[in-house]
Design goal:
It is a single chain. The protein contains nine helices and no strands. The chain has 272 residues and is mainly alpha-helical. The chain has one domain. The radius of gyration is 21 Å and the shape is globular.
């Protein structure tokens, strides 16, 4: 084989190696030693395993009985309520003590107590997104395949990568508001799922599911407006990160709006 052909074949792999090395070298040195942060390889492997589960899981369960996970779901959902409440508290208190600005907040890369405290809660928020992949595992085991929508899979897949990037490069600063708002929403969301796990007799108390979706949409709108402002403001926070957040939030607004329409408005019209 001519050397020129070998060179061209090897060039993409070399570029990939160079990019991987750049990722390793340019991260936040404070968070590099923490679980799943230093290299993108572990989180990519988790992502690939997740896709295998989504694709093959329903096929494996096709001729099997649904697994009864009632008590596991109750414990899991209320544990997630507690974790979300802890993160909401940490985001709120740390940003308050550090005098964070809502309009423009650079990342504090120092090893100061408040700088490290904010970085740690950002890691916990990222790790919570890895834990939340369990939602899909439970759907598969319970044969709730109708829940494995594009919105569900897309949201879970992208969040683990978005927040891996956040902890790797911008653990704190402007991104704190996303974690704070999302933690608050997840307190309500997992409370809903925890109550629903007790059984059908709880449905009469869960009339507020529609408002949960509205709350989720509201958070994406707030994040979009807030990040768009910072994208155009003179703020010492990476514009590349702001641009990714805005683009991502817009996709979630579109997908959750469609879910809201199909779940509530379209069904109401059919009943009418």
């Amino acid at each position: 084989m001519p050397k020129s052909v070998v060179f061209k074949m090897g060039l993409p792999w070399k570029r990939l190696q160079d990019f991987h090395q750049w990722v390793l070298d340019n991260g936040d040195k404070r968070t590099d030693p923490w679980l799943l942060v230093y290299s993108p390889v572990p989180i990519t492997c988790i992502f690939l395993c997740y896709l295998v589960l989504v694709f093959f899981g329903p096929k494996v369960m096709e001729k099997r009985q649904p697994v009864n996970l009632k008590y596991i779901l109750i414990i899991y959902n209320f544990a997630m309520v507690c974790l979300s409440a802890y993160m909401f508290y940490e985001f709120t208190v740390t940003s308050w003590l550090a005098n964070y600005s809502l309009l423009c907040q650079p990342v504090d890369y120092s090893n100061s107590p408040l700088g490290m405290r904010m970085a740690k809660v950002c890691w916990w928020f990222f790790f919570s997104k890895v834990i939340e992949l369990s939602d899909t595992v439970f759907f598969v085991l319970r044969k709730k395949n109708s829940q494995l929508t594009f919105l569900h899979v897309y949201h879970h897949c992208t969040m683990i990568f978005n927040w891996w990037s956040g902890v790797k490069y911008v653990a704190g600063g402007q991104s704190f508001l996303i974690g704070l708002i999302n933690s608050l929403v997840h307190i309500v969301m997992y409370l809903y799922y925890g109550l629903a796990a007790f059984g059908p007799h709880m449905q009469k108390y869960l009339w507020w599911k529609r408002y949960l979706t509205t709350l989720q949409l509201t958070q994406f709108c707030i994040i979009t407006v807030h990040t768009t402002y910072n994208l155009f403001a003179d703020c010492d926070f990476p514009d590349s990160m702001n641009a990714v957040v805005v683009a991502y939030a817009l996709t979630l607004i579109a997908l959750f709006s469609n879910f809201y329409y199909q779940s509530y408005l379209a069904k109401r019209r059919k009943r009418a």
